[in-house]
């Protein structure tokens, strides 16, 4: 069959980023021939090394090039040699905001055979999707500092939330919930303290809920939600939440679903006005970089999300099955290198 | 011996609040005769009922009376019949802010015999103290809403952090760490995103650390911290963090230490310019109110913190031992009512 050509931008980034991205691409190469897609890849040198060399994080010209791509695969950014926040804000968050990734999609799913730190939970108990808002909330960077370094210093951070921004992400979450068997959507916020933002989320949830009578809605304060993730994860099906709460709860999500080495994510622009970006939830882990110790599974599962996003559902399921099979057999095996895991999964995909 | 007279304000509050407070006072009565303290109690009718009756949450006159007390014991506030935030902001947070409870102290300790949702952890793995800032950060209530109810609505919440506020809580946390065997202090924040506030915390930590060379310091992003609470809780000894992050991580803390029924807290004014307030971490749980189902242990452990705060360390240890013994024997027993648990612990204290 004729395959659709996809321009894929690849940002390996820092630390273990390049290693895990290599395995993600290996698996993508294995599935591509049968996916109906032909990938044309462009690699972008962004991250700590470039910043040290040129002072650039995400230059305007590169951003413009990225806009012309169909999708982005990112490894990880951040390095202890760069001041905290420079690459996170200047590269990662800049991409999410400029490319209008208003949905940060993070499945929390315990695969069979994977060990979880929770006692007595089954794969059925841990199977949810977190829809994290990606373009506003406390992540705007709005804020500042007054009288820095003096005893009278004041430092502020502002969470900015708009009806426009909240409604589009809530709507997306309802769509997700409507298409899952349990059809349940839980809003996670802290509306008893952050009353202005919380009230906006609550009113929007209520309004959109009227259009989805088949979806049950629930509300949970963020503090209680973190507790329920640990002792009643089965409460959750689809979760919608703000940018910061989403950041926090998806790390607990990763922990209960077998660790950060397995947690995938998609920074999605559902309107298609700019390319979506797929990345493992984990960071650059400089302490283990270059040693072949990183688990590439989170990146490979991010490739699954990329394939789904591009409409190649069959190819996505094929990779997902290969990952599931590999995970199911891991328990008995000794430690494997990053490349060995990638090879094993790629082999299952082709085989 | 002559006993020191203590004026104790009691705010039973809503839902299960009155039930658990009754047991806390029962245990306090049991230990008081040997504590060197004589408690004179005044009960304050605050919470949902009063708000419905009068529209008041924490009237100025009551606040002034509270200022004249030596300490406060609070049950829980909040009820579904009251709009979210009214009692939380108007009563609980107003008390914390007005009485300058800048340290919100929350031990996370797994007692022997208590079951935790985490597989394979021991009591040694879960033994930390979270020092949560209590009077600033995202809890200030600063913020607002523009064009409410329109498609152009903007809702903001501002986190306000001051050198004054951060330094005093960080200093308190160093004192705690210096007095514990492991002498480790971890700052939990999100300095790669909330760069202004995070940088202030980091600089203050570094400055105060110079005065405590015996204390090891560490830093952890809040998202990673929540994960480590679940899969490596032993990493933490004393944690210092902002008001919102502290709210969130102490609920996971409660979950890993056996549940919200056991989590105690103190809203402490270390300078003694106003009374400190002790309360269980749990809420008013209206669904089980009035049924004798609530676990009063969190309140009784809050009484332990109250006794310690008042300098009655021996009495505090006595109650703590009674709780520990009761907990160690719970596993084998059937369900007991709120009052039965209180009776059992009070009996051990007297006996
Ligand atoms: C690196 C950091 C800026 C980022 C975030 O906070 O969103 C990360 O934690 C994530 O969850 O993708
Ligand atoms: C009830 C609520 C305002 C409060 C808080 O957020 O501080 C509670 O969750 C707590 O942790 O004491």
TrEMBL record, chains A, B:
Alphabetized PROSITE patterns for the sequence: IDH_IMDH
Cited Pfam families: Iso_dh
Keyword Kinase found: no
Residues binding substrate: 96, 106, 132, 223
Residues annotated as domain Isopropylmalate dehydrogenase-like: 7-345
Subunit details: Homodimer.
Function: Catalyzes the oxidation of 3-carboxy-2-hydroxy-4-methylpentanoate (3-isopropylmalate) to 3-carboxy-4-methyl-2-oxopentanoate. The product decarboxylates to 4-methyl-2 oxopentanoate.
The name this protein goes by in its record: 3-isopropylmalate dehydrogenase
Organism of provenance: Actinomadura rugatobispora
Underlying gene: leuB
